[in-house]
Fold this protein.
Amino acid sequence: MPNVAALLKTEIVRLSRKTLRQSLAPLQAASLSHRQQLASLKKQVQALERELAALRKQAGKAAAAAPVADEGGEKHRYSAKGLRSLRTRLDLSAEELGKLIGVTAQSVYNWEAEKTLPRQSQVAAIAGLRGIGKKEARARLEQTGAD
């Protein structure tokens, strides 16, 4: 009799596995399909994020090159490259240039790295520094330090 019990047990196990495989087959196919769709959507999102970053960068450059009007109605252009060249021409550190403009050194670094844009009043202050030389810049720094 132990043979019959063992045979019954193996047959039950076999049939239950067969039924389980039949029940799981559609679920596995659906799962595979969903994984493929997710992978496709992730690729799409990455491509769109790259495109958005490129457009933001392009828009930032266009905004930086656009003329900015100050309170007097004059238009001043700002560019990060121009700010860098002004700072090197005047032989000033970012901290010193920031003191002349009235901002922090970190703001100057962010403007040069094109992470942020200066306000209109700050652009006007930068434009005011374009016409001075090294000596006058040093004199203004000493004046600011004395105040």
In short: The first strand starts at residue 67 and ends at 69. The mean pLDDT is 87.
